[in-house]
Write a structure and sequence with these properties.
Strand content: 25-35%
CATH class: Alpha Beta
Bound molecules: ligand K1U, zinc ion
Structural class: alpha+beta
């Protein structure tokens, strides 16, 4: 049997069919399997290499509901929190604030384009970790923006469809 370890993966660009499709839930049978852990580590390496603040599995040609959120301060959002990357499987945004804010976004799948997107300022998200344990947490500001951007990828929506 030939097995490969974690690797930097190619990133799907706007126009690829996988970016326009709804991703499927990660089945319980996949939790904690070597294949799932390998995919998550490969997504983490790809995110690091691309210098992004988030990534969704469809962006690496995998049609599963997995996102990584890795907020850090940056020139556009100097007050953004520095957080250790959070891996979210099967995330569900359970609550969004009525209060919204405009902010600049980019996308690893749409290189060279940036634009203003209106997003909820606060949200509550439910998700499972790689072992299937459920978590629920609240996020605000830039971290909430990344979660909404990555969740959109799982629904087949790119930020360019939401430009103000
Ligand atoms: O999902 C992706 O394509 C990654 C994307 C996430 C994102 C950036 C900005 C707002 C919401 C979601 C990126 O990481 S784009 C590159 C980037 O590091 C960045 C872009 C704009 C502001 C801050 C960082
Ligand atoms: Zn994106």
């Amino acid at each position: 049997m030939i097995t490969t370890g974690p690797a930097i993966l190619p990133i799907a660009r706007q126009g690829e069919a996988i970016l326009a499709r709804r991703a499927a839930p990660v089945p319980a049978a996949d939790f904690n399997t070597p294949a799932l852990l390998n995919l998550i580590e490969s997504m983490r390496l790809t995110l690091l290499e691309a210098n992004g603040v988030g990534i969704a599995a469809p962006q690496v040609f995998v049609p599963l509901r997995i996102i990584i959120v890795a907020s850090r301060p940056n020139p556009r959002y100097p007050d953004a929190p520095l957080m250790a990357p959070v891996v979210m499987l099967n995330p569900e945004i359970r609550w969004r604030s009525e209060t919204c804010e405009n902010g600049e976004e980019g996308c690893l799948s749409v290189p060279g384009q940036r634009g203003m997107v209106r997003r909820a300022s606060h949200l509550q998200v439910w998700y499972q970790d790689q072992g299937g344990t459920a978590h629920e947490a609240g996020y605000s500001g830039f971290a909430a923006r990344i979660i909404q951007h990555e969740h959109d990828h799982l629904e087949g929506i790119l930020f360019v469809a939401r430009l103000q």
